[in-house]
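Hi R.,

Here's the chain you asked about this morning:
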Amino acid sequence: MRTRSILAAATAGAVAAALAAAPAQAAPAPIIQGLATPLSISIDHGKIFVTQSFAGKLSRYDTSGSGGTTLYQARPRVGTGAVEAGGPGTLFAVSGRDKEGKKFAKLKHLAVDGTVTTRADMREFERRFNPDGHVTYGFRDLSDRCAAKVPKDVPDSYKGIVDSNPYATTVLPDGTAVVADAGGNDIITVSPSGFRTEIATLPAQRVKWTEARAAVFHLPACTRGHNYWFEPVPTDVELHNGKLYVSVLPGGPEDPSLGARGKVYTIDLDTRDITRIGKGFAGATDLAVSPKGKVYVTELFGNAISTIKDGVRKKVFSVPAPSAIEWHNGHLFATQDTFENGSIVKLTP
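And here is the predicted structure, written out as tokens:
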């Protein structure tokens, strides 16, 4: 995940104007307010678990909106995310730099008695194996002469780098955690004992460099007609009927210059086959799957929650800057206003 945080394009809300207008329900009043960057939520036994990522917090509320207990507080400049409360206990991730300035990313486990332990060192796994290290991102077929003309702030060609940002988790029936690593561009399983295995490296995201796009990014004319392969940044993983559902926020700008390029894939747990089932999302940062298999996607930069119809997005709710979503007892719980006064709304599909 080169030269970017998932949130680096936060000012790209202009993409909303580029999306086709469609009738959609407005979001109701929030049930929980005053959250700082609520990027991940999970619901279990009538409790909402939410990470206030930039504040380094893991908090718990009732689904009615009452309560508000801090379960974990990281030290300054350490972020939290990837919460999964499906039990036993609660999984979440922490990432940042240690006191010596070295980067780290770990999957943590919060026991019922409040004890916090490290389940797995995700960055160490990435350092050892770097599953997408064989993948070429950027241009793949430019001549050396043309590549030399590409501006230095646009990587012309590079292999997957060592980076880890465990952004979302789900749990399999046997207790194995599945982690969507937004830094490593892959899906990793973590056993209850901490053993880690790669399930899939997601496909690079192709964009053809047209004359108009080349002009916007000040690229030389020799790049026109060539494909540019962006990194596939997974932002959520959910389990339904033997398949993993994964939302992908492609690398590069999330604005009208390249269009709404977020996608949703499924991964068959038996065959490991990867299938794209939806596209056209503006900042696909999370998804929820209903018991009947209907998929709902948060569009952080599209100010919407959308579903999938015939492989393409269909807007169903107008929600300002939503970043996380969960299905619970026939309702959707979603975070909104992610970069301002974050809150959680309860929606009825």
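One quick note: Confidence is low (pLDDT under 50) at residues 2-21.

Cheers,
M.
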